[in-house]
Specification:
The complex is a heterodimer of chains A (393) and B (159).
Chain A lengths: L3 H14 L8 H18 L15 E3 L20 E3 L14 E3 L2 E3 L5 E3 L5 E7 L2 E6 L4 E4 L7 E4 L4 E2 L5 E8 L12 E6 L8 E4 L5 E7 L2 E6 L6 E4 L4 E3 L3 E8 L4 E6 L8 E6 L4 E7 L2 E5 L5 E6 L7 E7 L5 E7 L4 E9 L2 E8 L2 E8 L4 E3 L4 E2 L9 E3 L6
Antiparallel strand pairs in A: 1-2, 3-4, 3-31, 4-5, 6-7, 7-8, 8-9, 9-11, 10-11, 11-12, 12-13, 14-15, 15-16, 16-17, 18-19, 19-20, 20-21, 22-23, 23-24, 24-25, 26-27, 27-28, 28-29, 28-30
Chain B lengths: L3 H20 L2 H18 L9 H18 L26 H9 L3 H11 L5 H8 L3 H17 L7
Helix pairs in contact in B: 1-2, 1-3, 1-5, 2-3, 5-7, 6-7
Classes of the chains: A mainly beta (393), B mainly alpha (159).
Chain lengths: 393, 159
């Protein structure tokens, strides 16, 4: 006999079963947020400078920069005096790591590959081709092999430091991947040509990022509930109890970075952990640690003080935690992804108002553009630029 | 902040589905989700408890939905396939889940929210009370009334 409670549950699920969930363009979210902020500020009578009313206020850069040369990096923001817009920042070399430019995947050497989809959000090399994640339906697709390799993706993609292996978590493809789907399998496969099958194991987390590869294991971190785990390909799972989430993996030193468990309430405490022993190597109160540098010697952290206030970045020695650098980026500088380009530079997927660009920041705080500024198309859910998740060859 | 776009890709569909069940109107649902995402975006830097992002987003959405319904000029009729006939129960169970959905759609907004959170989101009564900022007793009574009303519309062998 069907109970009324079951009828309700079934009816509600059936109601949304065929609902094609729309995707809100990020630019719409930002635009609406800006409108809300403006209204809120008006309500409380805050009549500060107009720059404070927008999410992406003009940059503040070194006034000594020659505005008519159009070349050379911009000085550290803490020395800055004159506000400029994103478009005024000098254009430098393109990213030296892989990135996405519209429908083109641009490899680190500048080689462009036209992607067959216009909503690709992540790309990694896989079996002499590319593995892409589509935003619209959440599918993970092995390009040129769509008939045999198409799945529903779960979380991000990861690449080993030597660029030889790719890790990803997928479940059998369904029409709408956002509906949950079946059992999730973690894959570790080659980036180059190979006839060997992927190494696989069950993925115990449903809603988690595949952060990185550590030897014969993959580090995964939940987006929401749960704890980060070290997933060995032999099936062993080690919960990284000291951390609430993992944001970086250092294969050279065998360390992971992340947020100390229990410190989710302000101020957050960044921590570096040896996952094999479970011991915390060092912590930094007030810092949200991100990824390790490609060489593994340092790790970057970020400190947010208030919305739209200048963001402080710190670079720490990976082994000891001693601080090596500190710099700020301008107020209103909205970051979406921060990736190491090399051991001396970060690349930031950045928006300012209705403009997007990839910005290169040196460890002394000097900024320059790695791409030309591009307007954000409010009618599209996708932005022109994206950084590939790893600094691979 | 760095991970907002990742969170957006992963979790917006769930918000869209919840919004649709609450509003029964795709356009209203999209509006509701957009304002929710914008508020979440504004608060993103201050959200240190990343383990509870979903719950936080859901609370924003529910608050916005409640606020919208309290604005008289924004109230709209519940959309159903057929208008109820005078003198008969609004919804007769005809064996289809669609009929049960029409019953849910006919519920007052808060009662519908309780039902959606209980039987779609699978939240506990305590979690619903927290999400809707109402008492546990109100959650129980709202759910109980809805179930009782549904039973009156079911064939006897099912009720």
């Amino acid at each position: 006999m069907t109970r009324p409670e079951d009828l309700l549950s079934d009816a509600l699920r059936e109601r949304i079963e065929h609902f094609e969930t729309p995707s809100t363009p990020l630019s719409d979210v930002v635009s609406t947020a800006r409108h809300l902020r403006r209204r809120r500020n008006l309500r409380v009578g805050v009549a500060t400078a107009a720059a404070a009313l927008v999410l992406a206020a003009p940059f503040v850069v070194n006034a000594s920069r020659s505005s008519d040369t159009g070349s050379g990096p911009v000085g550290p923001s803490q020395e800055s005096t004159a506000p400029v817009t994103l478009a005024d920042v000098a254009l430098g070399a393109p990213p030296a790591i892989a990135w996405i430019d519209g429908r083109d995947y641009v490899a680190a050497d500048g080689t462009r590959t036209r992607l067959p989809f216009d909503d690709v959000v992540r790309v990694v090399p896989y079996r002499d081709s590319l593995l892409v994640v589509r935003r619209g339906d959440g599918h993970v697709i092995w390009l040129d092999h769509e008939d045999e390799a198409q799945w529903c993706g779960h979380g991000s993609l990861a690449l080993s430091p030597d660029g030889a292996s790719t890790a990803f978590a997928v479940s059998p493809a369904t029409a709408d991947c956002t509906r949950g789907g079946g059992e999730i399998t973690l894959h570790l496969g080659p980036t180059g040509p190979s006839s060997a099958a992927d190494r696989t194991r069950p993925m115990p987390l449903r809603d988690a990022a595949v952060v990185g590869i550590l030897g014969d294991a993959v580090v995964a971190s939940p987006y929401n509930e749960g704890q980060p785990v070290l997933l060995a390909l032999d099936g062993t799972t080690t919960t990284l109890d000291p951390l609430a989430r993992v944001t970086g993996v250092n294969a050279r030193l065998g360390l992971v970075s992340g947020l100390l468990a229990g410190s989710q309430d302000a101020p957050p405490t960044g921590a570096v952990l040896d996952p094999t022993t479970g011991s915390v190597a060092w912590t930094k109160q007030g810092w949200q640690l991100r990824d390790f540098s490609p060489g593994g010697s340092s790790v970057v952290g970020v400190r947010y003080r208030a919305p739209n206030a200048p963001v402080t970045w710190g670079v720490f020695d990976a082994a000891s935690g001693s601080q090596l650098h500190e710099f700020t980026t301008p107020a209103g500088f909205a970051f979406w992804t921060a990736v190491w380009e090399d051991d001396q530079h970060l690349l930031l997927d950045t928006t300012q108002g209705d403009t997007q660009a990839i910005v290169r920041v040196a460890l002394d705080g000097t900024i320059q553009l790695a791409t030309e500024p591009s307007p954000i198309d409010a009618a599209s859910p996708d932005r022109r630029y994206a950084l590939a998740p790893n600094a691979f060859p | 902040m760095v991970a907002f776009d990742s969170w957006l890709v992963a979790r917006e569909p769930a918000l869209q589905r919840l919004a649709l069940l609450l509003t029964n109107d795709e356009h209203a649902a999209q509006d509701l989700v957009q304002i929710t995402l914008a508020k979440l975006y504004l608060a993103w830097d201050r959200l240190d408890d990343r383990d509870r992002l979903d719950a936080y987003a859901r609370r924003i959405l529910l608050n916005e939905h409640r606020t919208a319904w309290r604005r008289p000029w924004r109230r709209r009729e519940v959309v159903t396939d057929e208008p109820p006939e005078v003198g008969q129960p609004a919804i007769e169970y005809d064996g289809s889940r669609e009929a049960v959905w029409r019953f849910v759609a006919s519920l007052p907004p808060r009662q519908r929210a309780v039902i959606v959170l209980r039987y779609y989101e699978d939240l506990s009564e305590a979690e619903i009370a927290d999400a809707l900022s109402i008492s546990l007793g109100t959650v129980k009574s709202q759910a109980s009334r809805a179930l009782a009303a549904l039973r009156t519309r079911l064939p006897e062998e099912m009720s």
